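[audit] Reproducing an earlier prediction to check determinism. Same input, same settings, fresh worker. If the C-alpha coordinates differ from the archived copy the diff job will pick it up downstream; this log only records the rerun itself.
[audit] input (237 residues):
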Amino acid sequence: MPFFTNPFKKQDVSDFEGVFVPLAQAQRHHSVVSAYDDKKDGHIGVTEEKKLETPADPTNGYSSLTIEGLRAEIELDLAASGHDTAYDRKSTVINKAIQDIGMGRYQWSLFALCGFGWLADNMWLQGVALTLPGLTAEFGPSSNQVRYTTCALFIGLCIGASFWGIASDIIGRRLAFNMTLFLAGVFGLAVGGGNSWVGTAALFAALGVGVGGNVSSCSVLVRLESCTWLTKPHSFL
Protein backbone atom coordinates (compact mmCIF):
# COMPACT_ATOMS: atom_id res chain seq x y z
CA MET A 1 0.00 0.00 0.00
CA PRO A 2 1.47 3.41 -0.94
CA PHE A 3 2.32 5.77 1.89
CA PHE A 4 0.63 8.76 0.27
CA THR A 5 -2.94 8.17 -0.84
CA ASN A 6 -5.62 10.37 -2.32
CA PRO A 7 -8.27 10.68 0.41
CA PHE A 8 -10.90 11.78 -2.12
CA LYS A 9 -10.42 8.84 -4.48
CA LYS A 10 -13.49 6.71 -5.09
CA GLN A 11 -12.92 3.26 -3.66
CA ASP A 12 -14.12 -0.02 -5.13
CA VAL A 13 -14.32 -3.44 -3.51
CA SER A 14 -11.91 -4.76 -6.14
CA ASP A 15 -9.20 -2.46 -4.73
CA PHE A 16 -9.06 -4.54 -1.54
CA GLU A 17 -7.92 -8.06 -2.22
CA GLY A 18 -9.61 -10.70 -0.13
CA VAL A 19 -12.44 -8.45 1.09
CA PHE A 20 -15.10 -9.73 -1.29
CA VAL A 21 -15.29 -13.52 -1.20
CA PRO A 22 -17.96 -15.43 -3.16
CA LEU A 23 -20.14 -17.62 -0.98
CA ALA A 24 -18.92 -20.79 -2.71
CA GLN A 25 -15.33 -19.92 -1.73
CA ALA A 26 -16.09 -18.69 1.78
CA GLN A 27 -14.94 -20.28 5.02
CA ARG A 28 -17.86 -20.74 7.38
CA HIS A 29 -17.07 -20.42 11.07
CA HIS A 30 -17.32 -23.83 12.74
CA SER A 31 -19.54 -22.51 15.54
CA VAL A 32 -22.16 -21.33 13.03
CA VAL A 33 -22.32 -24.65 11.17
CA SER A 34 -22.29 -26.76 14.34
CA ALA A 35 -25.06 -24.66 15.89
CA TYR A 36 -27.18 -25.21 12.80
CA ASP A 37 -26.50 -28.95 12.88
CA ASP A 38 -27.63 -29.10 16.51
CA LYS A 39 -30.82 -27.22 15.75
CA LYS A 40 -31.45 -29.31 12.66
CA ASP A 41 -31.08 -32.56 14.55
CA GLY A 42 -32.79 -31.63 17.79
CA HIS A 43 -34.90 -28.56 16.92
CA ILE A 44 -33.40 -26.78 19.91
CA GLY A 45 -35.63 -23.97 21.15
CA VAL A 46 -38.53 -24.90 18.87
CA THR A 47 -41.88 -25.55 20.51
CA GLU A 48 -44.10 -28.44 19.60
CA GLU A 49 -46.42 -26.08 17.76
CA LYS A 50 -43.54 -24.72 15.72
CA LYS A 51 -42.39 -28.22 14.91
CA LEU A 52 -45.80 -28.94 13.42
CA GLU A 53 -45.78 -25.66 11.50
CA THR A 54 -42.22 -26.11 10.19
CA PRO A 55 -42.28 -27.40 6.60
CA ALA A 56 -40.48 -30.53 5.50
CA ASP A 57 -36.72 -30.32 5.87
CA PRO A 58 -35.43 -28.61 2.71
CA THR A 59 -31.81 -29.46 3.46
CA ASN A 60 -31.35 -32.81 1.77
CA GLY A 61 -27.87 -32.59 0.37
CA TYR A 62 -27.30 -29.57 2.62
CA SER A 63 -24.18 -27.52 2.03
CA SER A 64 -23.28 -24.54 4.19
CA LEU A 65 -21.65 -22.83 1.19
CA THR A 66 -24.75 -22.47 -0.96
CA ILE A 67 -27.60 -19.98 -1.01
CA GLU A 68 -30.02 -22.83 -0.32
CA GLY A 69 -28.04 -23.90 2.73
CA LEU A 70 -27.89 -20.36 4.08
CA ARG A 71 -31.62 -19.96 3.49
CA ALA A 72 -32.28 -23.19 5.38
CA GLU A 73 -30.25 -21.95 8.36
CA ILE A 74 -32.17 -18.69 8.43
CA GLU A 75 -35.54 -20.42 8.20
CA LEU A 76 -34.68 -22.68 11.12
CA ASP A 77 -33.44 -19.76 13.24
CA LEU A 78 -36.63 -17.82 12.56
CA ALA A 79 -38.75 -20.83 13.41
CA ALA A 80 -36.88 -21.22 16.71
CA SER A 81 -37.23 -17.54 17.62
CA GLY A 82 -40.92 -17.29 16.80
CA HIS A 83 -40.43 -14.01 14.93
CA ASP A 84 -40.51 -13.72 11.16
CA THR A 85 -40.31 -10.18 9.86
CA ALA A 86 -38.16 -8.51 7.23
CA TYR A 87 -36.01 -7.03 9.99
CA ASP A 88 -35.52 -10.44 11.62
CA ARG A 89 -34.43 -11.97 8.34
CA LYS A 90 -31.96 -9.18 7.58
CA SER A 91 -30.49 -9.16 11.08
CA THR A 92 -30.11 -12.96 11.03
CA VAL A 93 -28.14 -12.80 7.77
CA ILE A 94 -25.91 -10.03 9.16
CA ASN A 95 -25.31 -11.89 12.43
CA LYS A 96 -24.26 -15.03 10.57
CA ALA A 97 -21.89 -13.01 8.38
CA ILE A 98 -20.32 -11.39 11.46
CA GLN A 99 -19.85 -14.77 13.12
CA ASP A 100 -18.30 -16.19 9.96
CA ILE A 101 -15.80 -13.31 9.85
CA GLY A 102 -14.65 -14.21 13.34
CA MET A 103 -11.95 -12.52 15.42
CA GLY A 104 -8.96 -12.52 13.09
CA ARG A 105 -5.62 -10.75 12.94
CA TYR A 106 -7.18 -7.55 11.60
CA GLN A 107 -9.66 -7.34 14.49
CA TRP A 108 -6.95 -7.97 17.11
CA SER A 109 -4.63 -5.40 15.50
CA LEU A 110 -7.38 -2.81 15.37
CA PHE A 111 -8.31 -3.57 18.97
CA ALA A 112 -4.73 -2.90 20.10
CA LEU A 113 -4.37 0.21 17.93
CA CYS A 114 -7.61 1.77 19.13
CA GLY A 115 -6.51 1.00 22.66
CA PHE A 116 -3.71 3.55 22.25
CA GLY A 117 -6.30 6.16 21.28
CA TRP A 118 -8.36 5.54 24.40
CA LEU A 119 -5.14 5.43 26.43
CA ALA A 120 -4.21 8.90 25.17
CA ASP A 121 -7.66 10.24 26.08
CA ASN A 122 -7.62 8.92 29.65
CA MET A 123 -3.93 9.69 30.16
CA TRP A 124 -4.16 13.35 29.22
CA LEU A 125 -7.31 13.98 31.25
CA GLN A 126 -5.31 12.89 34.28
CA GLY A 127 -2.01 14.33 33.06
CA VAL A 128 -3.22 17.92 32.74
CA ALA A 129 -4.25 17.91 36.40
CA LEU A 130 -0.80 16.70 37.41
CA THR A 131 0.89 19.53 35.52
CA LEU A 132 -1.02 22.37 37.20
CA PRO A 133 1.24 22.68 40.30
CA GLY A 134 4.33 22.64 38.07
CA LEU A 135 2.88 25.37 35.82
CA THR A 136 2.18 27.53 38.83
CA ALA A 137 5.70 27.06 40.16
CA GLU A 138 7.42 27.69 36.80
CA PHE A 139 5.35 30.44 35.16
CA GLY A 140 3.73 32.07 38.19
CA PRO A 141 -0.04 32.07 37.46
CA SER A 142 -2.27 31.98 40.52
CA SER A 143 -3.87 28.76 41.67
CA ASN A 144 -7.22 29.96 40.31
CA GLN A 145 -5.82 31.18 37.01
CA VAL A 146 -3.86 28.02 36.24
CA ARG A 147 -7.09 26.02 36.24
CA TYR A 148 -7.91 27.53 32.86
CA THR A 149 -5.30 25.15 31.46
CA THR A 150 -7.82 22.36 31.95
CA CYS A 151 -10.45 24.57 30.30
CA ALA A 152 -8.17 24.99 27.27
CA LEU A 153 -7.78 21.23 26.98
CA PHE A 154 -11.53 20.67 27.12
CA ILE A 155 -12.14 23.36 24.50
CA GLY A 156 -9.76 21.48 22.23
CA LEU A 157 -11.54 18.21 22.99
CA CYS A 158 -14.90 19.70 21.99
CA ILE A 159 -13.50 21.15 18.77
CA GLY A 160 -11.70 17.94 17.88
CA ALA A 161 -14.70 15.70 18.50
CA SER A 162 -16.94 17.97 16.41
CA PHE A 163 -14.52 18.49 13.53
CA TRP A 164 -12.99 15.04 13.12
CA GLY A 165 -16.32 13.29 13.39
CA ILE A 166 -17.48 15.08 10.24
CA ALA A 167 -14.06 14.98 8.58
CA SER A 168 -13.98 11.17 8.92
CA ASP A 169 -16.95 10.91 6.57
CA ILE A 170 -15.25 13.19 4.04
CA ILE A 171 -11.62 12.11 3.94
CA GLY A 172 -12.01 8.59 5.32
CA ARG A 173 -11.67 7.09 8.78
CA ARG A 174 -8.15 5.75 8.27
CA LEU A 175 -6.63 9.13 7.43
CA ALA A 176 -8.63 10.87 10.15
CA PHE A 177 -7.56 8.29 12.73
CA ASN A 178 -3.88 8.60 11.79
CA MET A 179 -4.01 12.40 11.74
CA THR A 180 -5.63 12.66 15.18
CA LEU A 181 -3.11 10.27 16.71
CA PHE A 182 -0.29 12.21 15.04
CA LEU A 183 -1.59 15.52 16.44
CA ALA A 184 -1.92 14.01 19.90
CA GLY A 185 1.65 12.73 19.80
CA VAL A 186 3.23 15.91 18.39
CA PHE A 187 1.49 18.38 20.69
CA GLY A 188 1.81 16.01 23.64
CA LEU A 189 5.59 16.28 23.26
CA ALA A 190 5.43 20.01 22.56
CA VAL A 191 3.58 20.67 25.82
CA GLY A 192 6.75 19.76 27.70
CA GLY A 193 8.63 22.58 25.95
CA GLY A 194 6.18 25.44 26.51
CA ASN A 195 7.96 28.72 27.37
CA SER A 196 5.00 30.46 28.99
CA TRP A 197 1.73 29.57 30.68
CA VAL A 198 -0.36 30.97 27.83
CA GLY A 199 1.71 29.07 25.27
CA THR A 200 1.41 25.85 27.25
CA ALA A 201 -2.37 26.28 27.54
CA ALA A 202 -2.54 26.80 23.75
CA LEU A 203 -0.55 23.61 23.22
CA PHE A 204 -2.94 21.76 25.52
CA ALA A 205 -5.84 23.05 23.40
CA ALA A 206 -4.15 21.80 20.22
CA LEU A 207 -3.50 18.50 21.97
CA GLY A 208 -7.19 18.30 22.81
CA VAL A 209 -8.10 18.69 19.13
CA GLY A 210 -6.14 15.54 18.36
CA VAL A 211 -7.25 13.54 21.38
CA GLY A 212 -10.93 14.47 21.03
CA GLY A 213 -10.95 13.51 17.37
CA ASN A 214 -9.14 10.26 18.05
CA VAL A 215 -11.73 9.12 20.59
CA SER A 216 -14.56 9.54 18.08
CA SER A 217 -12.51 7.86 15.33
CA CYS A 218 -11.70 4.89 17.59
CA SER A 219 -15.35 4.44 18.51
CA VAL A 220 -16.42 4.41 14.87
CA LEU A 221 -13.70 1.95 13.89
CA VAL A 222 -14.60 -0.42 16.69
CA ARG A 223 -18.33 -0.36 16.08
CA LEU A 224 -18.35 -0.43 12.29
CA GLU A 225 -15.21 -2.30 11.27
CA SER A 226 -14.83 -4.75 14.13
CA CYS A 227 -18.39 -5.47 15.14
CA THR A 228 -17.41 -9.14 15.56
CA TRP A 229 -16.57 -8.15 19.13
CA LEU A 230 -20.31 -7.96 19.75
CA THR A 231 -20.66 -11.70 19.19
CA LYS A 232 -19.55 -14.62 21.27
CA PRO A 233 -16.94 -15.57 22.37
CA HIS A 234 -15.39 -12.06 22.20
CA SER A 235 -18.34 -10.00 23.42
CA PHE A 236 -16.45 -9.22 26.66
CA LEU A 237 -14.05 -7.00 24.67
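[audit] rerun output stored. Observation attached for the diff report: Residues 105-139 form the longest helix (35 residues).
[audit] end
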